[in-house]
Design a protein that fits this description.
heterodimer; A: 156 residues; 0% strand; rod-shaped; B: 297 residues; mainly alpha; 3 strands
Chain lengths: 156, 297
């Protein structure tokens, strides 16, 4: 309870410890803490930037998707058009081919018919001549009446 | 320490006496005081070895830890003890930012030193009152051959008014220094004499000057005194109650259990007092220094 030299000694040590704190303890700690604060702020800013960039990228991606869809639809429409064109063409070709073949067949048939008719005609002429020969053998010379027979065969 | 031949008042007296080294006026030699009377007789030419030892020991340990943390401090993620130190630094820094409006690089370290030191010195109050004095008594008896009743050991430095007054006077010097540095001698004197009563009447001027000087002088002196006496009073009273509770242990086992419960409750309550007193001392220091830096009231 006595006031004595302790007071002076404590005063001196108080000054020494305050000086020590001021010189060796406080500045490095506060500096480190400030640095960390700045670092954290930077980190947060970077994160925000990243988020912003991601947003942009997402927007870009969405745009690209829309574009791609449009392109795809275009391509599909083109393809469909082309397909229908091809089908149409094929149809036309087939029709053409069909009618061509039909015409050829008809021509052939006609040819055959004509041929047959020709044969038949010649056969008939022959038969007629043969018949007439048989009939006229006895009375007419074949060569003499050939004109008449031919005329008859022509009429058939 | 409570031997059968020791009375309660002797026990209390023993606990309230510092381990004193000083100039014995009777023999004219420097030495340790063997009793409270001898210590008192030494007057100013004495030093409280226990106060010095515990207070400086505590702050040196704290400084070693803080210096270690300061050396390792980096902007990387802090861990463990580093975190703890930074929490305290941040807490003090916030308090300084909140109360101190001028710019001065010495206020925050000062506040940190005061807070940590006062807190640690107060913390010694939570160590059971008899433990360290008893150990010191045993050491004194077996190592140095001294009567354990003559070994004094007060382990709570903030119950020594020398310690609290030394801090408060240190702060007071800083108040004076910065008042004069910021406002100049004329400004500081003007502040002490020109307020609160102001007059332009030349006849009245001497009277108001004297009255103002008395009022402001009291105001100024009250700062270190209230600062130190508040801390000293709180810790001294707390210590006293611990001692009184400790007396119950020698009054039978019922009182012993009751005393044990009381000691626990009081110690828990004291945790608050310890922190609060350290905080108040720090905050008032900051506020006083802020007032010293302010150019007008």
């Amino acid at each position: 309870m006595n006031i004595n030299l302790t007071l002076i000694a404590q005063l001196v040590s108080f000054a020494v410890f305050v000086w020590f704190t001021m010189r060796f303890v406080w500045p490095p700690l506060v500096q480190a803490m400030d640095e960390r604060k700045a670092k954290i702020a930077d980190g947060l800013a970077a994160a925000e930037r990243g988020a912003h960039e991601q947003e942009l990228a997402e927007k870009r991606a969405a745009e690209t998707i829309v574009q791609a869809k449009q392109q795809a639809a275009e391509i599909k429409a083109n393809a469909e058009k082309q397909a229908s064109m091809i089908v149409e063409e094929a149809k036309n070709k087939a029709q053409e081919e069909g009618s061509r073949q039909l015409a050829a067949a008809q021509a052939e048939i006609e040819q055959e018919t004509n041929k047959a008719r020709e044969q038949l005609r010649s056969k008939v002429a022959e038969l007629a001549v043969a018949g007439a020969e048989k009939i006229l053998r006895k009375e007419i010379d074949a060569n003499a009446h050939k004109d008449i027979v031919d005329a008859v065969a022509q009429q058939i | 320490m409570a031997g059968s031949e020791v009375t309660s008042s002797q026990y209390i007296q023993h606990h309230l006496t510092n381990w004193t080294y000083g100039l014995n006026p009777e023999t004219g030699e420097w030495g340790f005081a063997h009793s409270a009377q001898e210590a008192a007789a030494m007057g100013f030419n004495a030093i409280h070895v226990d106060s010095m030892m515990w207070s400086i020991g505590l702050i040196v340990i704290a400084m070693i830890f803080f210096r270690g943390a300061a050396k390792k401090a980096s902007a990387e993620t802090p861990t463990g003890f580093q975190n703890f130190v930074e929490m305290i630094v941040d807490f003090v820094d916030d308090a300084v930012r909140g109360s101190f409006t001028s710019k001065n690089n010495m206020v925050a370290p000062l506040a940190l030193t005061i807070f940590v030191w006062v807190f640690l010195m107060n913390l010694m109050d939570l160590i059971p009152v008899d433990l360290v004095p008893w150990i010191a008594g045993q050491i004194g008896y077996y190592v140095f051959g001294v009567d354990p009743h003559h070994v004094y050991m007060k382990i709570v430095p903030s119950t020594d008014p020398n310690v609290t007054f030394a801090m408060a006077i240190g702060v007071f010097f800083l108040i004076l220094f910065y008042s004069i540095k910021i406002k100049g001698v004329g400004g500081f004197v003007g502040e002490l004499t020109g307020m609160p009563f102001q007059t332009n009447n030349m006849l009245l001027k001497p009277f108001t000057t004297v009255i103002n000087l008395v009022l402001e002088g009291v105001n100024l002196i009250a700062k270190p005194i209230s600062l130190s006496l508040r801390l000293f009073g709180n810790m001294y009273a707390g210590e006293m109650i611990f001692i009184l509770i400790a007396l119950m242990y020698s009054a039978g086992w019922v009182m012993g259990i009751f005393g044990g419960t009381l000691q626990f409750v009081w110690a828990v309550f004291h945790i608050l007092v310890i922190t609060l007193q350290a905080f108040i001392f720090m905050t008032l220091t900051i506020v006083y220094l802020d007032m010293a830096h302010a150019d007008h009231h």
